[in-house]
Fold this protein.
Amino acid sequence: MNKKICMLVHTHSFLDSRIFKKEAKSLQRNGYDVTMIVPKIKGTLFDVDKKPFDKKFLEKTFIHEGIKIVTYNLEDFKPSASEMNKNLEKNNHSLFNNPLTKLGLEEKADIYHAHELASLYAGIGIKRMTKNIESKNIKLIFDSHDLIPDPLDNRILTQTKKTEMLKLLDTMIEEIDQLITVSHSIKSWYIAKKPLLPIEIIYNSPPLEQNYIQRNYDQPRLTVCYEGHIADDRKGSRDKIFKLTEDCSKEIDFSFKIIGGVLHGHTLSIPDNIKENIQLTGWVDYHAISNHMKDVDIGWIDFDDLQNSLNRSYALPNKFFSYLNNGIPVVVNKCHEMEKFIKTHNCGLVINTVKATAEDYAEAFLYLNKNRNKLKTMSINARKVMEKLYSWDRMEKELLNIYNSLLDGRQNKFTF
């Protein structure tokens, strides 16, 4: 019989690229029986851009691409950190009276894989109840996509809430069997909390693009790309996009391409003077991203609010690896983890300031446009590092090693 895996999800879309497209599909493809328990909002599942699926995926339980999807209503499970702390301290499994724990128990899986603090809490409930009622030891993985709570975030979280969440995290990591995360910096942060915690890095990288053709950078137009969500006050600031596009377009044949954009229900109004210089693809299927990047010369990432976010300093986001996978050099402001990566592999350019302006980026793009031999070298290096080290093809092997080790009871407690 195939070993059974249950993914526990609380806030992500069930089609999340890391959870569904990469991890769940990799496990299913390699012989595991995979179930995902995922949230509905107001009775419907939602896509990665938060758009509700109001005409499909309406069943409570269904099969999608060979993976069993079980749904629950998010409104029925929105616990506060203080509530979860109290229940964990009382050590009474009857207190885990929530739909995610109940549905997870029904799956009787060998390994549970949680992706947020609340889903980890539900997983601990499953683990405790399985142990107390059935005398069975199931394995529990916590997949920390980022740091929650973010130690530097003083805008959304009050100090009291942050303290409660940190206490919750410290309590719960004592009960997990394996932690997975997305960068060396986040791994180091967890090791400092618990040195013997079994922890591995599974990067947010895509499968290696098979139809890749090396760019020659011999076309007159320079196309810069941003992939992902555009918000007013954070990553992908629309004002910076508009300003740098305006500045570059005055000097060279320039185009800015946005793959993704605003979330469902929002609009992006482009100034008339640069409309012909900005391409909008909208949100596209995960597997179609590479095709939309074929005409892209440079990838752009801007995480400038680092004084309020340790996560952004520590991040190696999906878009970073999407660019590299397609041989696209990355231009980014001074973010610790991406800066270290780019300088190690010579696959992009780092603006030497945390608070990079639109003018800073425009200057960098114009410089690279004049130095296309450097741009081509960076492009070759970007693709090469994905082929040798970071593609999902390699991450999949790491993921399978983690699962096999947990099932065989031989995970490593020492990490460096």
About this structure: Residues 59 and 185 are 40 Å apart (CA to CA).
